[in-house]
Amino acid sequence: MNRRQFLQTSTVAAAGSTFLLPNVASALGPLELRPAMPIGLAAPEKELPGTTSLKVANPAEVKILQLTDIHFFCDRDTLGEKADQQTLDDFKRLVDLHEPELLAVTGDLWHDNPDQRGGEFSAWAIDKVSALGIPWLFTWGNHDELDDYAAAQVALTESERCLYRGGHSGGNYEVKLTDKEDRVIWQLVCLNTTNQGVQDAQEKWLAARAEDERRPRTNAFCFLHIPIIEYHRLWHAGKCRGLQGEEVCTYGEDGSAFSKLEKLGGIKACFCGHDHVNDYGGSRDGIELVYGRASGHAGYGGDEVRKGGKLITLNTVDGSYAWKSVFADGTSWVPGA
């Protein structure tokens, strides 16, 4: 199944309330139907914390496991529970194999909102990820659809082990990594790309963070679901290593996001998801743009690119890091290795 077929079978394609958005460099052509309600923006009336930190045991070796495009509950009418159970079994195995200190769940955790069941889907998915026993961050994906995003903001923030803190900031937030003396040694910038990619709201949030004198000036990673257009440009300039099985789908990001990330300062790499059969990385001006490995067996692309995760090993002391795609059988893949 490719992206077009995947969307045609999704409840998004069948929904009555849709509108057309320009789609830059999309495998689906110049226009695509997208849901009308921006994802993850509604804030609850309840006050929620806006900051969080994670203390790491060894600043010279911090392991982050990125899981993306999980799509719990996708095509349950035809696949049943088998695909989701296989995904959960893989996650447990990956955690056991690599013992990460953090999981980075970068969108499409569940699949759409058929018959207004998105709330049920999200609650189930949040519980399953938390049950892995590892602190985890979350960025919204274009399929993480709900009727009540305000309630989901509370559920994510208050879920055990979940580090999500975007409830009052449009789904955007940062996680501070600290050492045993509580010094901030690295930051994780989490962007909500909704169903439209990086747009003005996200860029304004980045600009405000860049101007905040209280923000620690450390190195950082950025996690997001929908890639920015620089992923497309780098690949077609021949500056990437890895594989591309479909064109980069940005949903209309106009190329200005990269400069906002540069102005924030300290960004060493961005890790996205969204395009299931892409797994590559390339650098521009000291920032590496990397695709995560699509993780969910219910999502499309498994017949072309094996489902797995992305293991990021970080040394916050000297600023170096490495990444590889990892699989539940203990094997791994690095482009060119």
Lateral strand order in the biggest sheet: 3-7-8-9-11-13-12-10
Report the total helices. 9
Helix content: 10-25%
Q: In total, how many beta strands?
A: 16
Which whole number gives the mean pLDDT? Answer: 92
Describe the global form: globular
**What's the story with the biggest beta sheet?**
8 strands, mixed
Rg is 18 Å
Uncertain stretches of 5 or more adjacent residues? 11-35
C-alpha termini separation: 28 Å
Query: What percentage of the residues does DSSP assign to strands (E)?
Result: 15-25%
Q: What sequence of helices (H) and strands (E) makes up the elements?
A: HHEEEEHHEHEHEEHEHEHEEEEEE
Q: Pairing-aware structural class of the strands and helices?
A: alpha/beta
Q: What does the model show?
A:
- With 337 residues, the chain is an alpha/beta fold.
- It contains 9 helices and 16 strands.
- It has helices spanning 3-8, 11-14, 76-79, 82-98, 118-130, 149-158, 200-211, 229-236, 257-264; strands spanning 18-22, 31-35, 52-55, 62-67, 102-105, 136-138, 173-178, 184-190, 220-223, 240-244, 267-272, 278-284, 287-291, 309-315, 320-326, 332-333.
- The strands form 3 sheets. An 8-stranded mixed beta sheet has the order 3-7-8-9-11-13-12-10, with helices on one face.
- β14 (309-315) and β15 (320-326) form a beta hairpin.
- α7 (200-211) packs parallel to α9.
- The longest helix is centred in the first third of the chain and has 17 residues, at 82-98.
- The protein is globular.
The gist of it:
The chain has 337 residues and is α/β, with parallel strands linked by helices.
